[in-house]
Amino acid sequence: MIARWNRFIGLFRRTEPGDSLAVARIACGLCVLWTIGSMVSAGLVQVLWLDAAHGGYRERVGVNWLVALLGGPEPAVVWTLVIGGLLGGAALVAGIAGRVAALVAGQALTALVFLNSQAAGSYDLMLTNALWILVLSRSTATLSLACRLRRGAWRSAVEVPAWPRYLLLIQLVAIYFSTGIQKLSNCWTPAGGFSALYYILQQPSWQRGDMHWIAHVYPLTQFGTALTWIWELTSPLLLLAVYFRATPQRPGRLRRLFARIHYIPVFVAIGVTMHLLTWLLMDVGTFTWVALAYYPAIARPTTIPRFITRLTNRASPHEKHVCGPSR
């Protein structure tokens, strides 16, 4: 028992390259900019986040502790939160004041979402959860302006605590698994002919356009329904697969099976395809991009550095000197 506890505590002492957290930081920052910026560009700040007395469509808006502390849901307060959220998101993308930027962006977004729950979605909670994890992490150790100013280069080999990446991974699995077990309609099961996606795509509230053509590929929607449901229900296996990948030297048939079927690449391929198709066919806000912002946590600690190095080498032309006989 003591040995297991020591191994558990050891997880919080592990360090690794910070590139995965850095990519997640950049992705989350872009999602914050999109979430708040799209409201500004569409002219919806006043309509959605202010009450009827100030031009909104609701008689009353929700007020969380931060809005109350700043003086209530007045136009100046709401616009302060909007500007603060945008600045926090931009700082995350640039990679400066990482913990403070994540805290500012997260609290501003939380306060704005609380003003009008009718204009929010579960993806807002996904994003603020990720931002809280970034508050606890050293996400600007590399691929950041802070790294450039501190070390004279955009990248650094300095290692950071690994447990924030583990938290992102656990959060992603919790989201998928909880979504899977809440699919209680028989349309998601063989009893309903796996017809859920077909009916969802016929609802005007989700459609991006006319979807009558889906009837001609109905079997594909059945396959997508079954695959999505099973994939979500079995998503906790991802944690096991990541553990197996991190301890390849240990024996075990199950470990060898996971390695043989390449479980993690298959899981990622299904997830990315599912999210991109969802974004292509349905109006789901920033859900697709917020969910994919978690995916860097799945990568090996050394995968992203190798990928960046490969891209850098391809982008840098190599001089070739051709030497011929002297005359």
In short:
This protein has helices spanning 2-11, 19-41, 45-49, 65-70, 75-94, 98-115, 122-135, 145-151, 163-181, 196-200, 218-233, 237-246, 253-260, 263-281, 287-293, 303-315; strands at residues 15-17, 159-161. It is mostly helical and 327 residues long.
Tell me what you see in this structure:
It is a single chain. The protein has helices spanning 2-11, 19-41, 45-49, 65-70, 75-94, 98-115, 122-135, 145-151, 163-181, 196-200, 218-233, 237-246, 253-260, 263-281, 287-293, 303-315, and strands spanning 15-17, 159-161. It is an all-alpha fold. Helix 9 (163-181) packs across helix 11 (218-233). The protein has a two-stranded antiparallel ribbon with strand order 1-2.
Helix content class: 55-70%
The tally of helices reads 16
SSE class: mainly alpha
Q: What's the pLDDT, averaged over the residues?
A: 91
**What's the assembly state of these chains?**
single chain
Gyration radius, rounded: 23 Å
- Low-confidence runs (pLDDT<50, min 5 residues)? 319-327
N- to C-terminal distance = 80 Å
Q: Which series of helices and strands comes N to C? A: HEHHHHHHHEHHHHHHHH
As for the number of domains, it is: 2
List keywords for this structure.
mainly alpha, two-stranded antiparallel ribbon, disordered C terminus
List the helices and strands and how they pair.
Layout: H1 2-11, E1 15-17, H2 19-41, H3 45-49, H4 65-70, H5 75-94, H6 98-115, H7 122-135, H8 145-151, E2 159-161, H9 163-181, H10 196-200, H11 218-233, H12 237-246, H13 253-260, H14 263-281, H15 287-293, H16 303-315
Antiparallel strand pairs: 1-2
Helix pairs in contact: 2-5, 2-6, 2-7, 2-15, 5-6, 6-7, 7-9, 7-15, 9-11, 14-15
